[in-house]
Amino acid sequence: MNSAPFEIIEEIASHLPFPDLLNLSLVDRRSASCCSRFIFHHIATLNTTSCLSEFEKLVSSRDLSSRELSIYHGTWPTCSRDDWETHPLQVVDAHHSIFSTNDKRASSDELAQRAFDAYYSFIKEERLRDSDHDRAQLERILWHLPRIEQITISSLIRKRLGRLGRAKLSEMRHKIRMSPTIFDSAGSLVESLFCILPKFGNIRSIH
Questions:
Q1: Is the dihedral angle over the CA atoms 105, 109, 169, 81 positive or is it negative?
Q2: Distance CA 50, CA 168 (A)
Q3: pTM for the structure as a whole
């Protein structure tokens, strides 16, 4: 690819399915540069403290030409360790099976404790969220995305999540071993966005 004209690589990239596009971006720096505009045309994040912080680092470290931003939101149950062990929304492989051998059960117990620790830290972090901080962070993120034209706010409990939504949900479920509840509201997120929207004339619609 080193000798191929930039325009040819870009034309090839524009017709590739997403997995092949990612593979092409790994060939060399020129390919990565060509592919980036297609890979990051539509970007997404979860509306959680840790995910928004990681997302802010991403957008501030790259010159992205993204046009669409999806923000996925969810609400997770607050549980004690005992309740977490048996909660119906828990991911089933988070703790040991009653049919495990003693050695496997000990290993599973250790993994379960790690999963609960991650869950507990996540819940504690979410409960300490501050609306003013969230609004300021969203504003900083949008300043780093000057080409964004559309923002979509979606619940993680929708039956038809897109590719990005499914990936974000899977990532969170794997991390804290718990699915979001059906009792969810994006009210505070929508309020924050509408407060800062007048500063961003490039954003044409919110869904």
A1: positive
A2: 13
A3: 0.77
